[in-house]
UniProtKB/TrEMBL annotation:
Organism in which the protein naturally occurs: Tribolium castaneum (Red flour beetle)
A GO molecular-function descriptor: nucleic acid binding
Protein name: CCHC-type domain-containing protein
Swiss-Prot/TrEMBL keywords: Metal-binding, Zinc, Zinc-finger
Domain CCHC-type per the UniProt entry, residue ranges: 213-229
Domain of life assignment: Eukaryota
Length: 295
């Protein structure tokens, strides 16, 4: 599910680069021998903490990330502060800096704020509120103007309209699936119920994860409409064709095959890319959960 605002798209990219990009760079550079997926992730997490990451942006549109990095390095060298940095990464929305610890992060953020002359902004990525999918909501109920108010009143929820945000309404043949974003407290309350009353109808609910996947190349992080791959990749056998044209019974997940090749892992590949037990899918799912505020 894609966000309509560019700000939210940038925030998603920030998260993906913070948790996934840095962790994967660590896996590929520090693990020259084959290892399990879980052990590789444990090693990466011990070296890079997503909590100690800072994103720097420049108000000067003509200044690229390389120039930003040079300016920040000079700024640090001119100061008497001891700021330790594990590494940097150039992302679309700015320069991502992975600090050694929270102390270095705090020092760097204060330094940029005091000497940046308002040309730089430093931010620490936060977390998203949890999401829920409400299934099979009748059309007249899904399209009503006071949908959030109806959810609160009919289910006697201890909440205000600010606690529930309608993210998307997905139209089915006869009804709608609705995705809402709620506060952590409200999430726990609703998930325990297992259903919600909307209008004169009871709808099942389940946690919903913002996991974007391309159904052309099978990779995560973009949709089919924005895919740059020249050919379709079969989620069943990894061949260069669509799944409907697949003629083999052999299962070979393209995502786990790619991870084995790039990160020298030993993941099993005898499943499809759509399998919920897929190692790559489970890894991506865990990344989304790390970005979700359940407290």
């Amino acid at each position: 599910m894609e966000y309509s605002s560019q700000l939210m798209k940038d925030k998603i990219e920030d998260y993906q680069n913070v948790i996934e990009g840095l962790n994967r760079d660590t896996i590929s550079s520090k693990n020259s021998t084959s290892c399990s997926y879980s052990s590789a992730l444990k090693k990466s997490k011990s070296n890079h903490s997503s909590a100690d990451v800072l994103i720097l942006k420049s108000s000067d549109q003509n200044k690229n990330n390389a120039q930003i990095e040079k300016d920040i390095k000079n700024m640090c060298n001119e100061s008497d502060l001891k700021i330790n940095v594990n590494g940097t990464k150039h992302i679309k929305s700015g320069l991502l800096i992975n600090c050694e610890n929270k102390e270095s992060l705090s020092k760097l953020k204060d330094l940029v704020s005091s000497k940046g002359n308002s040309s730089y902004t430093a931010s620490v990525p936060g977390k998203f509120n949890p999401r829920l999918k409400i299934y099979n909501v009748l059309a007249e109920d899904a399209t009503q103007p006071g949908l959030v108010e109806d959810i609160i009143s009919r289910n006697d929820l201890n909440a205000s309209i600010e606690d529930i945000k309608v993210v998307a309404k997905i139209k089915n043949k006869k009804d709608y699936n609705i995705i809402i974003e709620v506060t952590p407290f409200l999430f726990k309350n609703i998930i325990e119920r297992g259903s919600l009353y909307i209008g004169w109808h009871k709808s099942n609910i389940a946690e919903c994860f913002n996991l974007i996947k391309c159904y052309k190349c099978c990779k995560y992080g973009h949709t089919k409409n924005k895919c740059t791959s020249q050919v379709a990749i079969c989620p069943k056998c990894s061949g260069s064709h669509e799944m409907k044209d697949c003629e083999t019974e052999r299962l070979c997940c393209p995502n786990c095959t790619f991870s084995n090749s790039r990160f020298k892992l030993q993941l099993t590949t005898d499943h499809t890319a759509n399998d919920l037990s897929c190692h790559t899918y489970q890894h991506k799912l865990n990344l989304v959960k790390q970005k979700t505020n359940y407290c």
